């Protein structure tokens, strides 16, 4: 990470926490207010930039732009120094040892080519997804990608004698790169730009604006986050704003309701930035830019002058937030995770962005093999669901049973190689191998922990948590309305749980 050259020194402030939310929203509004390009260039020099985004990676077509907003739950500054205790007390953020480097906010914003309504999708932080490049991990909660990659990168860097601020900087770059790669692979969408938001960014933005108005459907009280608010419209100061966006205990949908809180806060802050006259007062304007310079991290090469035209969608209130779907909740290695259907998530993101959803894969060859299905997930009825889902493609149902343990895989006997490949494709890309003990024309499918029947193949059946006895109640289903089912209108002050 580096600074753009010739940056004037930022004003000293008592708060040393991150101000990325200030920077991102300020940047969006600044570029849409018609400020002269020479003044814009002067104001925006000195922002921290990052090379973590692969310059040669996929790009949005025809002038569209996808921006990933990364909210980092860290209690440290950019050099790895602990935030002062008085700041942590204001933020209700514990003693500074909590949080690590989880990305508790991941929002992908899509600005269509030629203007028009912008869209933003939030990725729930506990989505259990595939990861690459992290030693010992093939899947993890999406929020963990940053911290895990940072940790392992720093182990190698420390052996090279790298310490202090340089170690922190390079470790964060590894975390950013892993997060960008993970989100891009998960959604199968390009990321053109990103901005990183620190834990205290919400605090600083609300403070800089003199408070932000929010609206709650119900009164809340939560000792963990410090949230204690009545129902209805109200204006929150910096400390209250952070409590508002951090609360998850005591909410009907936990983290998913918190995601809507974050969306509502950004919508309300953008609304106030637009209407408060901040950008006709150069003194206030310089204050916002100074805070942005303090801890803002944006992707290198971001041409904010070219970006100005597209930013009109965001600052004009022409923005809608939605939350990507989850299929349910389960425990993996003792952790509560969100089960996701990757195909469904990708289709939802593309639909939100006005893009054509990808068609589900259709096998070219009709199968003729008999399938035996072994269910080791502990979820009742899953083996029968898989057999039933594959029947329309020509597969005949053989032996269907539950087993104590196993990993997701497909084995085939003589003459069944092509059919095994077809089944693997339909079931989401399971590994395939030959088994000389299987008879001719036989395919054996093993369903391991974490396997989910793709949405394109039909209903998932009644799930039972892994390890639970038959007849135990299924884990709660995600809501069909609210979070993640509903949308948040970015044009005013939305009311949320």
Automatic annotation (TrEMBL):
<feature type="region of interest" description="Disordered">
    <location>
        <begin position="454"/>
        <end position="497"/>
    </location>
</feature>
<dbReference type="Pfam" id="PF03816">
    <property type="entry name" value="LytR_cpsA_psr"/>
</dbReference>
<feature type="domain" description="Cell envelope-related transcriptional attenuator">
    <location>
        <begin position="102"/>
        <end position="273"/>
    </location>
</feature>
<feature type="compositionally biased region" description="Gly residues">
    <location>
        <begin position="483"/>
        <end position="497"/>
    </location>
</feature>
<dbReference type="InterPro" id="IPR050922">
    <property type="entry name" value="LytR/CpsA/Psr_CW_biosynth"/>
</dbReference>
<protein>
    <submittedName>
        <fullName>LCP family protein</fullName>
    </submittedName>
</protein>
<feature type="domain" description="LytR/CpsA/Psr regulator C-terminal">
    <location>
        <begin position="370"/>
        <end position="451"/>
    </location>
</feature>
<dbReference type="InterPro" id="IPR027381">
    <property type="entry name" value="LytR/CpsA/Psr_C"/>
</dbReference>
<dbReference type="Pfam" id="PF13399">
    <property type="entry name" value="LytR_C"/>
</dbReference>
<comment type="similarity">
    <text>Belongs to the LytR/CpsA/Psr (LCP) family.</text>
</comment>
<feature type="compositionally biased region" description="Pro residues">
    <location>
        <begin position="466"/>
        <end position="481"/>
    </location>
</feature>
<dbReference type="InterPro" id="IPR004474">
    <property type="entry name" value="LytR_CpsA_psr"/>
</dbReference>
């Amino acid at each position: 990470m580096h600074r753009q050259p010739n940056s004037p020194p930022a004003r000293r402030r008592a708060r040393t926490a991150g101000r990325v939310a200030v920077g991102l929203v300020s940047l969006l509004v600044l570029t849409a207010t018609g400020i002269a390009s020479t003044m814009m260039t002067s104001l925006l020099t000195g922002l921290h930039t990052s090379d973590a985004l692969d310059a040669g990676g996929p790009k949005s077509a025809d002038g569209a732009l996808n921006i990933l907003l990364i909210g980092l739950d860290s209690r440290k500054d950019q050099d790895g120094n602990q935030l002062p205790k008085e700041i942590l007390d204001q933020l209700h953020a514990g003693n500074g040892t909590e949080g690590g480097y989880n990305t508790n906010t991941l929002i992908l914003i899509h600005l269509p080519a030629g203007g028009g309504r912008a869209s933003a999708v939030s990725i729930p932080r506990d989505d259990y997804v595939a990861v690459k490049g992290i030693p010992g991990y093939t899947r993890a909660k999406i929020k963990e990608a940053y911290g895990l990659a940072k940790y392992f990168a720093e182990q190698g860097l420390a052996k090279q004698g790298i310490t202090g601020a340089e170690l922190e900087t390079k470790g964060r770059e590894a975390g950013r790169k892993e997060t960008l790669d993970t989100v891009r692979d998960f959604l199968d969408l390009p990321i053109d730009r990103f901005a990183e938001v620190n834990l205290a960014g919400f605090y600083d933005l609300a403070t800089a604006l003199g408070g932000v108005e929010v609206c709650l459907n119900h009164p809340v009280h939560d000792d963990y986050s410090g949230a204690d608010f009545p129902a209805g419209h109200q204006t929150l100061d910096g400390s209250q704003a952070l409590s508002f966006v951090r609360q998850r205990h005591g909410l009907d949908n936990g983290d998913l309701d918190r995601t809507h809180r974050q969306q509502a806060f950004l919508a309300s802050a953008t609304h106030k930035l637009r209407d408060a006259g901040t950008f006709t007062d150069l003194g206030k304007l310089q204050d916002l830019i100074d805070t942005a310079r303090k801890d803002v991290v944006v992707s290198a090469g971001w041409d904010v002058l070219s970006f100005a035209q597209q930013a009109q969608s965001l600052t004009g209130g022409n923005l809608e937030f939605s939350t990507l779907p989850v299929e349910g909740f389960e425990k993996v290695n003792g952790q509560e995770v969100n089960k996701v259907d990757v195909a469904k998530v990708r289709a939802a993101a593309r639909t939100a962005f006005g893009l054509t959803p990808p068609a589900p894969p259709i096998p070219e060859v009709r199968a003729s093999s008999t399938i035996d299905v072994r269910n080791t997930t502990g979820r009742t009825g899953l083996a029968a669901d898989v057999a039933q889902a594959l029947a329309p493609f020509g597969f005949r149902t053989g032996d269907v049973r539950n087993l104590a343990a196993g990993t997701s895989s497909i084995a085939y006997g003589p003459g069944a190689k092509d059919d095994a490949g077809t089944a693997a494709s339909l079931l989401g890309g399971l590994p395939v191998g030959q088994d000389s003990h299987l008879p001719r024309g036989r395919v054996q499918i093993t369903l391991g922990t974490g396997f989910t029947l793709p949405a394109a193949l039909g209903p998932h059946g009644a799930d039972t948590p892994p390890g639970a006895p038959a007849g135990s109640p299924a884990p709660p289903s995600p809501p069909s309305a609210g979070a993640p089912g509903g949308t948040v209108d970015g044009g005013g002050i939305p009311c949320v749980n």
